[in-house]
Every structure is written in structure tokens, then in C-alpha cells.
């Protein structure tokens, strides 16, 4: 997506000249990993041809790259999603509110018209108990037993308060879109929403090296009909956005900043509809490091991975008719922001109408080979 430089800088955090950021741009020949350090834009493609290999190299030395000058003095940049070869993983049902909404989807069988009644019954039964219980604890086991006896247990509550987190693959390698791009929902979905999240970026040894913002676009009607439809609910053309850049961890930005972060969301429709929301990481039920460990499990990701940490945002505000709640319309502008990570903005279309994902791993390797970037 071509960004005028003023718009790009506006999408970065206010302290962007103090932080270290990693991303990708297209200079006309193909994707280039770039570093932004102390305001300087540095092409790192001759050091490592992909973001994944650059991260895996360890310490990132800007002196080895090609300086393109001060970021603010560029004319315009074609900004891409900041990741490339990393697996795209996601943790689900990591907040109490989202856990309840998944149970509501399930018991309503994906029918938005039945959701309000189910929500009222569940909230009356659970009260604040699910918000205070520690997943995997004896108290969680007791709550589980009580809900089973009351006929209200759900597979979503299992991953919300049980010992094992829900970890799934969100989208294929190289399929994510970046800031300014269109995001897609299936054209046959009638109940869907954005999911604003903080996304950890990990190297091949599963060490978190930084974070960015993400939109884990979700189809509530598909997943609500059956959890076995999770793949169709989550993995669609243009259904995963990341950006604008990865903020690398350093003395000024650490995992504690992730733990205390608040993600803001604004949806503006062409029909005049406006929705504002927020997701506070302080309310997450499992620590980000625990989710990272559960994502790794006994597996190995040689090119590293990114991990969506989940969201407590589950919009219930009616958009068209009472009791229907929220669902996207084509043309919605979705803005996700955080003071330390910047702003990620995308416009909603259908997955059918969004630009087709056609640049895969083979295409990337051929492109890098043609540019002489694989010789090392």
C-alpha cells in the first residue's frame, strides 16, 4: 500500500524517533526488510533478505544496512505487512468477555437473533466468577463442575479457564496484509467483527523480540454454528492485518509494556455508524509469556512465528435492528491504535472482492534470487 510520508508517520507512535522498528517496504523490485532507528530508514535486505532471517540473525546492526535517509524526508513508501516467513498463530478466548461471547455464539448456533437471550442467561448464572478465576486452578475446576451440573459447560469455557489455551493457525505464510490495505470478510457471512489485538513477534527459538498490532477478523456466524468451522471463520483472503511496523524490544519498550497496554478500536461506516471500543491487556487471563510457551509446545518454527494474544472486544452494540448486535458492512474503516505501537487502519471489503493473495513462498524465493539476495 502506497503511503504518503505524512500519513505513514501519523500511523507511528509519538516516540517513533526513540524506538527501534522493523518492517517491509517495496522499493519497486520486491519486498525489502527495513529498520527504522532514531528516525533513520535503513534497507536491511543485503544483510538478510527477509524479516524472518533478519530476526533470526540476532543483534540487528543498522550499520550493515543501506541508509535511505531520514524517514520524514522520504516522498512516499509502499508499506507491506511487517512479517514474511513467520507462521501466523493466534490465542483465542484469553479474556473473560470474549469467552462469554464465544459461548453465546455456540449456544445461539451462530444466529445473531438468539444471542441476546443467551447472553442474559449466562451473565445471570456466572456473574463475575469467570473474570476472577485463574485458568487451570482448583477454583477453575470447581467452577467447571458447577457449570457442568447446571448444563452450561462449553468447549470455549474449557480453553478459557482450563489448563490448556486455545492456540490456532490464523493464516498461511505471506498471506497477511498491512496498514492501509483492504481486509476481507466472507461474502456469505452475516455476523462478523474485527478483533483488535497485540501481536508478539518471536524468533526461531521462541524468544519474543517485539510486538505489533493486528486485526484477527472473525466470522461469528460460522464459528458459532460449529467450532469445527474455525478454519473458515478465521482463514480467508485478506482476513489478517498487521502493522504498521514491529516495535523491537529494548530498554524503552519491554514485555511489561505489552502487559500493560490498551488497544483502542474505532469503526466508521459509510452509513454514518461509529463504534468505539478498547481492549486492556491487564485483563488477560493468561500471561503473554505463558501463551507464547503454549504456542511453541513441543513444536519448532524454524522461521519464527507471530502470536495474536486475543481480545476482550466483542461488540454487542446494535447496528441496524434491536437485538442484532454488530456486524461489518463493506466500506467500514477499522482503526486499531496503541500509544507505543502506533495505528493500524484497514477498510472492510469481502474476501471475494479483496485483491487476491497471489505472491507465495515460491514467488518470494524467485524474486529474491533474481535480485541476487540468496547468494549468501
Automatic annotation (TrEMBL):
The keyword Transmembrane does not apply. The keyword Hydrolase applies. Belongs to the FAH family. InterPro entries: FAH, Fumarylacetoacetase-like_C, Fumarylacetoacetase_C_sf. SUPFAM superfamilies: FAH. Residues 200-348 form the Fumarylacetoacetase-like C-terminal domain. GO terms for molecular function: hydrolase activity; metal ion binding. Gene3D superfamilies: Fumarylacetoacetase-like, C-terminal domain. Keywords: Hydrolase, Metal-binding. It comes from the Bacteria. This is Fumarylacetoacetate (FAA) hydrolase family protein. One of its GO terms (biological process) is small molecule metabolic process.
Amino acid at each position: 500500500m502506497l503511503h504518503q510520508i505524512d500519513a505513514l508517520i501519523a500511523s507511528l507512535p509519538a516516540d517513533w524517533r526513540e524506538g527501534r522498528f522493523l518492517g517491509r517496504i517495496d522499493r519497486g523490485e520486491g519486498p525489502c526488510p527495513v529498520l527504522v532507528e532514531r528516525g533513520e530508514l535503513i534497507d536491511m535486505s543485503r544483510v538478510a533478505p527477509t524479516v524472518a532471517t533478519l530476526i533470526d540473525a540476532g543483534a540487528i546492526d543498522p550499520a550493515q544496512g543501506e541508509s535511505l535517509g531520514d524517514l520524514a524526508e522520504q516522498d512516499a513508501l509502499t508499506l507491506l505487512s511487517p512479517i514474511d516467513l513467520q507462521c501466523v498463530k493466534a490465542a483465542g478466548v484469553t479474556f473473560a468477555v470474549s469467552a462469554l461471547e464465544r459461548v453465546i455464539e455456540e449456544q445461539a448456533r451462530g444466529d445473531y437473533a438468539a444471542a441476546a437471550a443467551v447472553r442474559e442467561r449466562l451473565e445471570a448464572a456466572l456473574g463475575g466468577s469467570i473474570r476472577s478465576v485463574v485458568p487451570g486452578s482448583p477454583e477453575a475446576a470447581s467452577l467447571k463442575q458447577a457449570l457442568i451440573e447446571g448444563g452450561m459447560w462449553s468447549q470455549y469455557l474449557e480453553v478459557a479457564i482450563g489448563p490448556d489455551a486455545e492456540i490456532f493457525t490464523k493464516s498461511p505464510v505471506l498471506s497477511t496484509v498491512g496498514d492501509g490495505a483492504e481486509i476481507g470478510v466472507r461474502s456469505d457471512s452475516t455476523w462478523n467483527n474485527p478483533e483488535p489485538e497485540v501481536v508478539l513477534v518471536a524468533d526461531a527459538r521462541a524468544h519474543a523480540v517485539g510486538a505489533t498490532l493486528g486485526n484477527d477478523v472473525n466470522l461469528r456466524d460460522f464459528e458459532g454454528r460449529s467450532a469445527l468451522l474455525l478454519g473458515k471463520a478465521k482463514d480467508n483472503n485478506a482476513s489478517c492485518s498487521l502493522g504498521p511496523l514491529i516495535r523491537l524490544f529494548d530498554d524503552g519498550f519491554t514485555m511489561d509494556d505489552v502487559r500493560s497496554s490498551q488497544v483502542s478500536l474505532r469503526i466508521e461506516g459509510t452509513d454514518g455508524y461509529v463504534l468505539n471500543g478498547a481492549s486492556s491487556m491487564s485483563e488477560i487471563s493468561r500471561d503473554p509469556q505463558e501463551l507464547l510457551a503454549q504456542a511453541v509446545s513441543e513444536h519448532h518454527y524454524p522461521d519464527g512465528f507471530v502470536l495474536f494474544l486475543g481480545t476482550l472486544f466483542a461488540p454487542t452494540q446494535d447496528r441496524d435492528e434491536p437485538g442484532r448486535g454488530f456486524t461489518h458492512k463493506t466500506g467500514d474503516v477499522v482503526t486499531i491504535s496503541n500509544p507505543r505501537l502506533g495505528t493500524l487502519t484497514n477498510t472492510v471489503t469481502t474476501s471475494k472482492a479483496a485483491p487476491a493473495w497471489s505472491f507465495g513462498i515460491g514467488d518470494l524465493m524467485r524474486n529474491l534470487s533474481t535480485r541476487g539476495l540468496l547468494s549468501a
